[in-house]
Amino acid sequence: MQPTLIDFNIHGDDRGSLIALEQHKDIPFDVKRVYYIFDTKADVRRGFHAHKHLEQVAVCIKGACTFKLDDGKSQQHIRLDTPSRGLYIGNSVWREMYDFTENCVLLVMASNLYDESDYIRNYNDFITQVS
Ligand code: TYD
Fold this sequence. Notes:
By secondary structure, this protein is mainly beta. The protein has one domain: Jelly Rolls. Helix content is 6%, strand content 44%. It has one helix and twelve strands, in the order ββββββββββββα. The chain has one helix at 123-130, and strands spanning 4-7, 11-13, 16-18, 33-37, 46-51, 56-62, 65-70, 75-80, 85-89, 94-98, 105-110, 119-120. It is globular.
């Protein structure tokens, strides 16, 4: 599945807004892990990896950041700047995150537990595997 933006339903009223995310309803997989990135330093760039077998949905629940996604054939840059939109990223997509706003909180839901052996951290290895 290609990287896709998912718009979440906002339960808003005069008290404010609430978004609820359920696996297989709003998130297209079993959510086995949640992590978040915050307090990013100025001009930092993170990521620089792909996964062999992992699906993720990333949401900027505060602030904004940009994803560079690369499937080995083409690249795209996607700005996440609202808590009501998630970015689905499947297997074999090289990702880098940059242009974090100072207040950014980037929440990521993942289909599996943390497993370093699932990472491809070398770009040339990634290109070889997707070719
Ligand atoms: P890292 O993969 O370098 O983050 P990024 O993809 O944003 O560049 O992860 C930073 C550290 O956190 C590294 O020591 C691995 C650890 N980590 C976990 O322990 N569990 C996790 O779920 C994740 C994503 C990272």
